[in-house]
Amino acid sequence: MNRAAHIAILVLFLAFFLAPFLVHPGLVFIAGFAMIQIVFALSWNLLFSYAGLASFGHAAFFGVGAYVAAAALRDGLPLNFVLVLVICAALGAFAAFLVAIVVLRRASGIQFAVLTLALSQLVVILIGYSEFFGHDEGISAIPRPVMNFWLFSVDLRQPLVNYYFVFTVCVLAIGLMWLLVNGHLGRAMRAVRIDPERAAFVGIDVWRVRVLAFTISGAFAATAGALLAPWGQIVTPDYVNWLHSAQPMFASLLGGAGFFWGPVVGVIGLSALNYLTRTFAGLSEVLIGGSLIIVVLLAPQGILGMLRHLAGRTGAEKPGGHK
Amino acid sequence: MILDAQGIEMSYGALKVLHGVSLRVAEGETFAIIGPNGAGKTTLFKVLTGERMPSAGTIKYRGEDVTRMPAYKRARLGFGRTFQVARVFSELDLKTNVVISIESRLRYSGRSPGPWWRWTPSQEVRAEAEEILSRFGFPQHRWGDEAQYLSHGDRKRLEFCVALATNPNILMLDEPTAGMSPSDRREMTKLLSLLKADTGITIIMTEHDMDIIFELADRLMVLNYGEVIAAGDPEAVRDDPTVRKVYLGQGHQHA
Q1: Does residue A105 belong to the interface with chain B, where contact is any CB pair within 8 Å?
Q2: Which of A143, A307, B110, B133 is the most exposed place for a label (fewest CB within 10 A)?
Q3: Yes or no: domain A2-314 corresponds to CATH 1.10.3470
Q4: How many inter-chain contacts (A to B, CB under 8 Å) are there?
């Protein structure tokens, strides 16, 4: 990675870190929401770009986290919210593991896509029937928790504290994912995506690597979902629906799926589009659709791919393009 | 016997491509499988490496039945292989290609390739990858190149490095010099004979280039329409009248 990328990451980090002091509360809310979407999009891209699996029902795992956390907060479960987050991640991992061992047994490619989509829509229907999860209305007016630690307590009812809680958890999740995909496990995952047969012939158990990737991805998606409960204070089946499953795909496509930071750029771009068109009903969909078409046609590698290409042309990139 | 395959049959739907092929390969031997196009060489290869399961027959590796064992488990037992059209991890650089192979070996042999949070390969893994790449003619300034930009011959050599990085006991090479330039061919042949001399590794190979076969192979087997029509040491096979007729052709002259 070159210096410009490092600087860009630092600038982004600072922008989110200082957001509450720079912009009005409406934008701070959007920033928090964007961070949650970033973790969600990265969890999807971890599966797509590193293990070569396109999940079309990823919102189901997001939903597991969102609903479990929402129900726990609504019912005032006497658990520290950090523990709730860990439980949500574990449940997301478990759900993803179950889906993976069923779906990955045989299916690949399009069957895999359809099966993941069908399973996630099944979750939406089940929620619709569930009294506990509030049917189609979802869970609203979710109270924000106060977390007591030994020496201090963290009160998420204070907006600033709430923001920095979301910020901290998201930065930790992003950092963890970065370490995972750049470590030996990430290398094995990439080997499996690029050529599963070649990977098998160096002794890599392709099925196991894919199940593991799916499980990890589910855990992070659920963590993102769990953060939504105290942040947005409302969880509805819309967050589990296929349209929400498509969000990380749009973000990865827009930002550049081949890059770890691609979905981050994509989410920020999509959030900006949404924000700038908020007063024109229906315009945001048209603009988002339009910009995706433009990106796919003009920059199939996404925004980051285009930037790298431009940098290469001006000679900023070393030949070979390696880190 | 490191590898003992008996009565291998294989069909693709109604098309039977292998009619009871048997072969036995001793430790340290270089065994070549030759035959005209469509004779079933590559299919036999796929069955021996675990890419395909045979319809009938048994395959034993050092006495252990591996007929139904999937490829990755065979790789863990000590099978290494290369493909007719070289397959490497094309989007990754040369070093990472070899590192993946080494880390896989460490993982399945019960050693850790390092903690999961380390974003660079461990010192030992890197050193080993660098040693393998240098040994097979990739100088340091090329280690960072992406594999997809390699020439055909270099790709084959890199694949060879990837296969050897798992420390195989038996190396399965599917046409190791196919599509190479004459100089690349000579280099690969030299490399293989050096490897044979250095490590005493068992090699099973298919090849079209007879000169390479006669230079490297200790024994060979001729396949035609999925049947073994001759087997033995190279000189005997070369003088076999049936072989001359179906495969080597009238015009083949060999010094």
Answers
A1: no
A2: B110
A3: yes
A4: 103
